[in-house]
Design a protein that fits this description.
The protein is of the alpha/beta class. It has a single domain (5-264), classed as 3-Layer(aba) Sandwich (Aminopeptidase). Helix content is 37%, strand content 15%. It has eight helices and seven strands; from the N terminus they run ββαααβαββαβαβαα. It has helices at residues 27-30, 37-43, 48-51, 97-125, 167-178, 199-208, 233-245, 247-264, and strands spanning 5-8, 14-18, 57-61, 128-136, 155-158, 189-191, 212-220. The protein has a seven-stranded mixed sheet, with helices on both faces. Helix 5 packs antiparallel against helix 8 (247-264). The radius of gyration is 18 Å and the shape is globular. The chain starts with a strand and ends with a helix.
């Protein structure tokens, strides 16, 4: 099974990831994949790779989350039952032990690549911040009925896995993003309302949490039609620009916190 994982290493302490952007189904699994393309795309995070077209390190997964969900623990990365996948039946027949092992090998390979990039950034800067970019659906009943705004912010920042020492950086990013004009208005940005951060964030923070933090940024799919996949390109570019505008804040805040900690020690 091909990796389909794109890694771009540049001179920056910021790492942006789009681990649910992928739509590719490896040929070996296509005959067993029951879902149609539009059914898969609805639960994938299309356009997140475009959002992170930024001058930072990047990790982009090209394989669909319906093959392996890289934001879940390895023992749950395969959607075996409808309960694992928003009520969807993913596989026409049960995967064999060899097929599951192939998926697990891909999963492990992704994390090895992420580990190598994180450690190279830590070696260079002594610190890092990960922008873990995702999107989420808010019209699950039908294409016309939106979920209540009270529980569905336009941008949800998941931070639950981070060491408390990164609080100033988290607050600065939330404040900066809240002041960014997106689609003609200041966005509703809230923390840990809809999502708090998944297995990828937990893995990073449990291994490297003393060196940096993970901001799991979930954009509500107001920038696209989640039923057809059609995107509002201007809205999408506003999101990308908002992330770009906040990179100096992230970098400077990260390096300052890291330097202050070294001074105290």
């Amino acid at each position: 099974m091909e990796s389909q994982t794109y890694i771009d290493s540049v001179n920056s302490p910021v790492i942006a990831t789009a681990i649910h952007d992928g739509h590719h189904i490896p040929p070996v699994f296509r005959d067993k994949m029951l879902l149609l393309e539009h059914e898969r795309m609805r639960e994938e995070d299309p356009y997140t790779a475009d959002m992170i077209n930024l001058p930072v390190n990047k990790i982009i997964a090209g394989n669909s989350r319906f093959v392996a969900d890289l934001n879940r623990p390895k023992d749950r990365c395969i959607y075996r039952t409808p309960d694992d996948a928003w009520g969807l039946t993913v596989w026409a027949t049960k995967l064999t032990a060899d097929e599951e092992q192939e998926i697990n090998t891909y999963y492990d390979g992704f994390y090895l690549k992420a580990e190598a990039l994180l450690e190279s950034v830590i070696d260079r800067y002594g610190c890092f911040v990960v922008l873990d970019i995702h999107t989420y659906n808010h019209r699950r009943q039908d294409a016309y009925t939106a979920s209540p705004v009270e529980q569905n912010p336009e941008i949800n920042i998941g931070t639950a896995n981070n060491d408390p020492k990164w609080r100033p950086l988290i607050d600065a990013f939330i404040g900066g993003l809240s002041k960014s004009v997106i689609n003609g208005h200041l966005p509703d940005v809230r923390e840990n309302i809809k999502f708090k951060g998944g297995a990828f964030s937990h893995w990073i923070c449990s291994r490297y949490g003393s060196y940096g933090c993970v901001l799991s940024v979930e954009f509500k799919k107001t920038f696209m039609d989640e039923w057809t996949g059609r995107v509002n390109i201007n809205h999408l570019m506003d999101i990308q620009q908002a992330l770009r505008d906040n990179l100096p804040l992230l970098k400077n805040g990260l390096l300052q916190l890291s330097q202050n900690e070294k001074t105290i020690k």
